[in-house]
Design goal:
The protein is of the alpha/beta class. It has 16 helices and 22 strands. It has a six-stranded mixed sheet, with helices on both faces. A six-stranded mixed sheet has the order 16-19-20-13-21-22, with helices on both faces.
Amino acid sequence: MVEKIEHLEMCGITKRFPGVISNNKVNIHIKAGEVLAILGENGAGKTTLMNVLYGLYQPEAGRIVLNGKPISINSPSEAIALGIGMVHQHFMLVPTLTVCENVILGLSKSFLVDLKTAAQRIRQITDTYGLAINPYAFVWQLSVGEQQRVEIIKALYRGANLLILDEPTAVLTPQESKELIQLLRNMAAQGNSIILISHKLHEVMALSDRVTVLRDGEVCADVLTRESSQEALAQLMVGRKMAPCKREGKFSPGKTVLELQNVFAHGDKGTEALADVCLNLKEGEILGIAGVSGNGQKELAEVIAGLRKVNSGNITLNGKVSTKMSPARIIQQGLGYIPEDRLHVGSIPSFSIWENLILKDHHHSPYAKHTLLQNRVIMDHSASLVEKYGVKTPNLQTATGRLSGGNIQRVILAREITRNPVALVAAYPTRGLDIGATEYLHSKLLEARKNGIGVLLISEDLEELLSICDNIAVLYEGKVMKVMPVEETDERILGLLMAGIAEEPA
């Protein structure tokens, strides 16, 4: 039987990586039934600290005290045995296995597995906490929100009563986020402790009892949530007052740079994902694409970038039909692309920062001469972009996959914008980013608009769309419901359209 965690402390935790002090003498504490939010910008050391608690990393200094006794945690299995579970930002599930098989994976000591008893225990857990998951469903059939519930069930099945969640709503829809907050509240009410790594201030305010703020690897504040505010927490995170970016100046678009005419395309499962889509993007315009996740946004970005076949219809980029062009030709034709998956589609994680920065132009002058890379030119160019775009890295040789999410996004943004595209497709560019990185990215998109680049911004964040877009189109089940000037819409109107309601009910 796992001992109940009544009180846990991390005292003076220091963790270093080559060239970086990720945690510097960090102190945190949590008691049973409490929800503690660890808040901070990307790269502040939040995930590293929790990886120390979960046994994935060993600290150079400091100690962990559980229920008054000093302990050492040398592996995740030791953490689980102590009642500590962790749900990572990127889920660790096998898509081709069922929920039940994923939950018990690695637990069986023999070849004989009692799936029936395991399924009964899973049902007990789901009934207790209101998780509502079918144990026999295959993981690949589940939504992202349901997959996250499976990760929580995995931790609870192993006896966890302190649950660490790393950016739990980063890939969830607004509705799924609300459901998760309610679920976590229920769990805390039943005596479980929860540590929430987040940068979404409204969720931190809605869920947590206390907030510990990290900045540059050190604790800069520990406050009771009820005694603070979103504005105060934002200032603690970034060390300055925040000035949200907003679209300014009169909207005066130029010529059309990207046009979709009656485009149809299939999704990964062979069903229709885009149905008769017509869109028009002009120079100096930010056109927002709103919609609940899974309504064709991914497929829209991919058909424009040449990564998905168009069944019928035409796409015109910079005056030329690009429908059947290869992705390489589309890049040459003037498309910039910030994909939804920044780690595996937008960059090559094992490549260095400088390699990722010249990924699309490495074979062109001035980076190459007679097929030979011009190292000095490349390094000068890369160093200039790293400085200009504020990428936090030990050096240009660092593998891009070792950077925080916000810094990876800055690398991609630097590469795509400095290529001077005529049109830039940005799919969920601020997803998973902290408030400071989001503000920076918005400023760069507005700068691109000012320089005459047409920006297609795909986002589920209505506040983001309303603050920086000129026009907003709503996608529902692969169809464009309506395209509206931002002055003529609001969150209520967009919400109705996102639900498939074209006309306001009488």
